[in-house]
Structure formats: structure tokens, C-alpha cells
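name: query_chain
kind: protein
chains: 1
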Amino acid sequence: MNENHTDRHKKTFDVEVRKHPFLTRSLFPSRISTIKILAILSVWFVISYLSVSHLIHRRVTTELERHSAELKQTAIAVTYHFARSLFYLDILPARIADNLVVRASLRSYSGRSGRQESSVEDNHRFLVSRPELETLNRFLDVERREFDVDVLWVIDPDGTCIASSNFDKPESFVGINYADRAYFKSAMEGRRGKQYAVGRATNIPGFYFSAPVKAGDRIMAVVVAKIDVSRLNQWFSLFNCFVTDKAGVIVITSEKNLENHALAGSQVFQMIPETREKQYKRRDFPVLSIGNYGGLLNPYLSTTFPGSDVPYLLVRSDQDKNGYTIYSYAKLNEIEKLHGLILQITVLVFITGAALILFTAAVIRYMHDMRHSIGVAEDARRELQSLNETLEDRIKEEVRRSREKDNILLQQDKMASIGRLAAGVAHEINNPIGFINSNLVSLGKYVDKLKQYICQLESILKKPCDEQLPKEAATARATLKIDYVTKDIGALIDESNEGVERVRKIIQDLKTFSHKEEAEKTLTDLNGCIESSVNIVWNEIKYVANLKKELSAIPEIVCNPQQIGQVLINLLVNAAQAIKDHGEIIVRSWSDIDSAYVSISDTGSGISKENLQHIFDVFFTTKEVGKGTGLGLAISLEIVKKHGGELTVESEIGKGTTFTLRLPLVLSSQEKISCCG
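structure:
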């Protein structure tokens, strides 16, 4: 009630007291009654405090459980994507080590006899000038660009780099000795090596992977690949997480204050300072302590970051095979605020309860003042309800903000798609390369026959002219099958050109898909996006389904072609994975006056009604463990919504599923008339 209403009740109450003097004695009870009321109020205060504390603790426990579950999902997803990012680096050195160019160059290399004590500069000049290593340097540079790593280099058994993809750069590794590196020692023992370290020549931290080049039981050299941490830092900056290596040093972090920190009690503090200096280019590391600190956060893992007293909830993933551990974290501002409200809410509840107690006493003592007491109690109830609603709204707002942060994870599905399709694209490239190689072998044999035929003609022409010369020439032509050779050479060249075009198209489509997305949208041929996406995922489709395309002529649309390509690839891969034995996938495109449409239908197992209503939920998946993260469709829906479109699904168990994508058109008036027909 407002202030005037309360004053009116007070005046009425005072008048009633003056009209009934006997009531004055009951308004001022005896000492015993006052003690009883004080005792009741004291007990009520204790009950209020315990009740509010219990409710707040339950709320905090619920929030911690939710945060912990979300962080666990984030840690699993980030660990999966991080492992996929490093997987190809783990196998790349072994692939390079088995290459014929590398082995041929190493066999022709005579070593650095008498130059073991030379300076790095002298070694560099000597090694770069060696003609048998020039081909190896060029080959490493080509492979570096093809596999998108920062540096590829080869180390001799003494630990000296003899060839490198950056051989012609100021920061060239050629001539530098890496014998003390752990990845080199592992490779010299015949095993694949891996290590995080700060670059000796570049001073740039990175991940190193190595493999030995073997000749029987002898190790000829070591191949090493490096990717700079900065390449992954840009990706990790989107998440609240950090990564530690085997020694417990934080090597990647989205929190700048944690850079170059090490976990308390980790292995790095057991290294001698010289070893730390060689690997990390520093001897001292600020300590980050994590653990179970009890109180509200017990039994969850938590910490505080440098320069802040706010606690952070941590979830730690299992250490992967490369020795890296991922921690995801969440700042617990809202939980701290809840904890700080315990006393305030207790006071409010106590005041409300005290008012009710006094109101009850007043009813017993002063029945005529019941209306006034009810009004006061109603005001207190409304105030408490308002406070409860405010608290609920604040909690909902904090939950909404937290979910918005989690939505950033949905944008990283493209890296998983590229990793999932890499093996299939490589297979599609190997097929045309195989028959090109076969054609070149046949072409070589034909050239030899033509050379032999020319030699025989020259020999015939040197003889005295007689009637036998044309017959000898014809015999030689027939014996060497020159007519067949000249006819087949053209077919071989045409077939080889076709294979080269297939490889070029696959690589061009993959480069377009994997290119860093631009913020601006452009006019895009939607049918071209479909063809490019099909080309990329063809190896996923061709073994399980017949692909049928029914593409209509449609106007260009304004969109981000990489993002729309990501949606189409997700839908095509899902369609292929839904088919168990062998079926059919149909891709259709059409348009009306306002929109362009793409539908992708499969004859797979279908989706149940229960799962259909959750199909676009984050982390929801019906696939086997390891085949999906539950992000693809959620990300696709988010992309389509950002383009002002719709993504719908229809499915029937045992018959198949159809996803329909609708995107808005930007048409001129003439185009609209033409589209309507």
C-alpha cells in the first residue's frame, strides 16, 4: 500500500486507542509477554536464515550442475575438434618420410663430412648450395602449402636441419641443430615424435610432429612438421577454455591473463632451468592453482584467475594421445551474487515473518484492528512476491547470456566437416592420378616404338633405291603397330586431360569450401553451390547411394556461399549416413517469385517422431559414438536463419527423410515476371 493509506490506518488506530483506554494496557504488555515475543522473533530469524540459506544453496547447486554439464559438453566438443585438427599433423611426417623424392634426395646426399663444428651460418650456406638438396627443399615447400602447415623440414642423424620449406627465408631452419628436441630423440628411436615448444629460429610457439626416414634398420633422417599455436589461438578465442601440455604448461588459452602459466605441481617445475629455456624460451612460470576448495563450490573443480577474486568453475577432459589436456571454465558471477543475497533475503523474510507474528498477536489482542493488520501483511506479501519475481528474472537473464556464449560453439562445425571428408577427397584425387600415371607409362612405350620406327626408316633410306624399300618400310610400320600407336596417343592424352580436370575441380571446390569466410554476402549461383558440395562429399555418397540431381534454372541469390555450402554438405553427409545398405539420394532445386528452394531426400532409415522434434537441438544426435557431435543440423539451422530462410524436415520410419532449404531471392521486377512465367 502507499504511504497515505498507511498513515490513514495509523490515525484510525490512534483514535480507537483513545476511545478505549482499557486497550492501552494490552498494547503495552507485561515484561513476560515482551520476552515471549522477542523469543519468538529470535526463533523466526533463525528459521528464516536457515530456510533462505537452504533455498539459495539449492539454487546454487542447480546452477553448478547446469554449468558443469554445459562445460563438460564444451570440453568434449573442443577436445574432439582439437584432436581432429592435430590428427593430420601426426601422420603427415610419416607420409613425407615414405615419399620417393625424399628418399632419393637423402640417398644422393653425401653428408657434412668435416663440417660438424661449423657455425650455423656456414652450415646454412653449405647445405643450401648442395644441388642434391635443392629438389628436397622445393618439394618440402610444395608439401607445406598443400597440407597447410607452417614449416616442414628434414634433420640428419646428427640433429642438423639439412632441408626445409623455409630454406630461402631469413628465418630458415637449414643449418640449425635440433638434437636436444624431444621429437627428434623419439624419431631417432624409431618412433613418431610430438612436442610443444617455442621455435628456435622464429621464437613462435607451436606443435611439432616427427617421423623417422628408415632404410632397413638404419635411420637416414627425421622429417618434422610444425603448426604455429597462433593458428589455433584464433579458434580457441571463441571458447572459455585453455590447453596444457604434458608438462602442465598452458599452451593455448582464450584468457590472456593465463598465457605462459603452469599448473601447480606440474612436471615443468621438475625440469632443470636449462631444459625449460630450450623448450619454452623462459625459465620461470606463474602458477595457476586449481582444486576442490570446498564451500559453495564443493565438490567441483575450481580456481581463481590472476587479477580476479571471482571463482571459476572448471571441467577437465581426459589427456589425449598427444599428451594435451583441455580445461573449459565458466565465471561464477551469478553464483557469487546469489550467495551475497542470503543476508538481504533473510532480513526481508524475517521482516515479513515478524510482521505476520505481530499481526497474529494484534488479532488476538485487538480484534477491531484486524483490517489494518491484514493490509500490512498484504503489503509485505506483495513486496516479497515482487522480490521473488525480480530474482527469477535476474537468474533467467544470466542463463540466457550463458546460452548465448555456448552458441558460439555452433560455428566450428566446418573444421569437423573438413576433417571428416579429407580421406574421401584424397581417394577421389588418387583415382584420376592413377590412370594418368598408367597413361604416361603407355605413352612412354609408344614414344619408344616411334623412335624405333624412325631409326628403321633412316636405315632403309640409306640403302640404294630399289623396289624393296617401300615394302621394308611397310613391314616395319606393321611390325611396330605404328597405325595403332598414332591413333591411341590422342585417346591417352584426352583421357589424361580429363583426369587432370577432375583433380582440379575437386581441389578448387575444397579450397572454396575451406576458405576463411568473408563477412559480406555476394550474388551466388545456388546450383553451383550444390554441384561443388556434391563434388566434395562424393566419396561419402557413391558407395551407399545413387545420386539423382533435378536442378532447375533459378536466379542468383545473395548469400555467404561458404556457409550455404556448409549447410548443403551437412545435409548430404547426413543423407549418406542414414542409408544402411544401398539407396538413393535426390537433390532438387527450384524457385518461385520470392524464394529459392533446395530439397535433399534419402531412402534411409528415417527419423522417429520423438527424435524429429529434437533434431535441431544442440548436441542431439542419433548417430553412433564418434560419428557425430550433434552440432551439424543446429549450425545449419542457425546459418539459414541468419540468411532469412527456413530449414524444414519431413521423415517416415523405413522410407526416408527430406530436408528442404528455403532462401529469399533478390529479384528485379523483370526477373519476378520471368520467374512467374
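note: Residues 3-65+336-407 form one domain.
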